[in-house]
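Here is one chain, start to finish.
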Amino acid sequence: VNLTFTPLAGVFAAGNRCMIKPSEFTEATSEVMKKAIAKYYDEEEVAVITGGPEVGAEFTKLAFDHILFTGATSIAHHVMRAAADNLVPLTLELGGKSPVVLGRSADLQKAANRIMAGKTLNAGQICLAPDYAFVPKEKTGEFVAAATKAVETMYPSGLKDNEDYTSIVNQRHFDRIMGYIEEAKSKGAEVIEINPTGENFSQQPHHKIPPHIIVDPSDDLKVMQDEIFGPVLPIKSYADTKQAVDYINGHARPLGLYYFGEDSAERDLVLNNTTSGGVTVNDVVFHVAQEDLPFGGVGPSGMGAYHGREGFYEFSHKKAVYTQTGSEMLAMIRPPYGEAFRKQVAGRLKR
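Its structure:
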């Protein structure tokens, strides 16, 4: 819902009409939005088109003035190719593996509270969710304990029947995330399930996965290659902050980056030597909630930005208009070119 109505505000502010194709993964929500929009807007102002991937494919072939796509990087390639046929400008809001760098000066429990709140928000199914975390080598065990305490504090009654903790969107993504966990276990990685009340998740109709931490997974595991988009947090121990910076720079540019700590020199090292769509310091995700900051990705995590004033600019065409003066002082620039013109040219060349 947020990913529909937030950009729609910028679209309207810039004086546009709009066609919306919501995700086929959330059919019920899409139908509610379609009915609500139809109640208050004429179809000539806003039209909502529902359907599967084939509808989306046809949608992106239309000669719009602008296309905003929010989704997976793999699908964005197809959207961009389709838009290219009509030379339609694009805004791409994608995702990626948004890292956390936990500095040695950070308040460990406070940081764990905020990281796990971001990781369990919508069960990790948000584009800016912290994907993996760098933790000082000597504090790995302490961080795991703090993260466990954070989850237990947020969900003291458990997870399975707790409406505050949501499900994975469908069976395919449930199987994908469980596959990350099972592969990590089979390859000998340390996998910690955070299950506050020891519930049995093996028999359930609603696709809930408790938060998991994977300690120092190898980079060949899929959990370190794919955007997780779920409640699994790999942590990588580090000895030196530059080690974390080099790792981040060796991978695709993320949508978000999160630094925790009070060491300004370390913070500047991380922020000045990495590239990401946006940054939140001493929390996660929150830069997206600031309406006076642009929200957008860079490279594989997206292009363009919106929110607030940036949305107005993004969905506008900057049309230049010039009205000439009534004076004929500029007649000398028209043929035939005489001495006055030559003097003007000579004078300008000497400047």
